[in-house]
Amino acid sequence: MTRKISNGFSEKPQDYRNYVDGAFTAASGEMIEVTNPATGALLGRIPETSAAEVDAAVRAARAAQGDWEKLPAIERAGFLRQISAKVREHRVELADVIVKEQGKIRSLAQVEVDFTADYIDYMAEWARRIEGEVLTSDRPNETMLLLRKPLGVVAGVLPWNFPFFLIARKMAPALVTGNTIVIKPSEETPLNAYLFAELLAETDLPKGVFNLVGGRGRTAGEALIAHPGIDLITFTGSVATGSHIMQVAGRNLTKVNLELGGKAPAIVLKDADLDLAAQAIHASRVINTGQVCNCAERVYVEREVHDALVEKLKTLFEETRYGDPSVEDDLHMGPLINQAGLDKVAEAVKMARQQGTTVVTGGDHADLGQGFHYKPTLITGATAEMDIMRHETFGPVLPIQIVDSLDEAISLANDSDYGLTSSIYTRDLNSAMQAARELKFGETYINRENFEAMQGFHAGRRKSGIGGADGKHGLYEFTTTHVVYIKG
Ligand code: NAD
């Protein structure tokens, strides 16, 4: 059963169906309500998928995988291009769904949708570049082939903060390399995935290649990650869930790819362009209401420019426009995702106050009558051992610590459980290069905001994850190497 997307979202809330084996399947159990975090309005209901239904999705993906793998990669890429074209055709409606269910501002939701279409095309371009190797053997008259092959069936478990893009980050490299996939979106933001499935159903993609099952983590998610028919679990989300997934995967020895939390340091040296640093750090902290794994969550600034940087940041924080993105444009940020997210941010600021910091601006809920809003909050006087410098806050809160040298800043930046991204602002090439050499992170941004490119490699160290995504190296995470020895 296919429903036209143009009739889909803006009307009254409706019940959505999983997409399994090329069909929209009726739910057999409980339905989960999806609401707008800015207003509390009901947007729709999705199925709480049972273990038996998850099993059916994995079996469908397995049944489809053999024929899918046998297709020339360029044909698989053709299906991906059909999907990206559908996304472009419905770019405005898809962005609208993201605005409503995640609370993202409209301009950023549109960037997310457009970037997703580009990302699918980018991964399709790899079809003619999936390379193996030919080696000489140690034996006479023998040649070795290193063939790059798909892993089989992939499970993609998604978070809520970039819900639409993350479908593509899992699906596109999986499919172009010959895998099939079962996606479980976050129960907070699943509707964009259900509408994506409707668009995908209008393409010629063979049944069973892409499957979508909804539900909570501890039920549908658990059934998926524990399924013995999965060859790779690619997960983006919190450290706690990532750690749990790795333990469950251990039972079946399933390969995992984990993109987890962050606590990105930004280093500002005394020779930095302070206007640039303030603008980039402010943008990095309020984008998606601070709910981005990549973005600067702690600042180390040299003493000489501390006051000047704080002054500039204070102005920018106080000029930050926030509200309900489903009715207002021209905002910097919307609400936090839910009550738990709001409570976590409020608790982090309360603790920072108790531990002796100064709240320069913000530091409280933003009372807009409804929604999970928190004021953009700038904190000074932070020190290394404080919780606000060590734990992911995931909100519009920025703590600042004074340092006296680049060496001290690098040492403090590295002294963290997290190792996803980092940044430095300086006009000195030697300082920038020292930071690039010595920062122990997956990514370092020099004199720019933290936003990764699709041809890079997004990978966290320490508790920020295992493996990575994007580019050639991300693509190859979805493959295995098969060695063939040819005598003769
Ligand atoms: P989360 O870990 O709470 O949930 C992520 C997904 O895991 C959801 O789909 C959820 O239903 C599922 N899940 C929860 N428990 C499960 C279980 N027992 N078994 C199987 N699945 C389960 O994370 P979240 O709150 O949705 O996302 C925010 C987190 O994601 C932040 O920590 C953020 O830093 C991180 N994140 C990381 C990246 C990255 O690229 N490194 C990108 C985006 C978000």
UniProtKB/TrEMBL annotation:
Domain of life of the native organism: Bacteria
Active site annotation, chain numbering: E259
Pfam family for this entry, one: Aldedh
Gene3D superfamilies according to UniProt: Aldehyde Dehydrogenase, Chain A, domain 1, Aldehyde Dehydrogenase, Chain A, domain 2
Domain Aldehyde dehydrogenase positions: 25-483
Keywords: Oxidoreductase
PANTHER family: SUCCINATE-SEMIALDEHYDE DEHYDROGENASE, MITOCHONDRIAL
Protein family: Belongs to the aldehyde dehydrogenase family.
Protein name (database record): Aldehyde dehydrogenase
Species: Paracoccus acridae
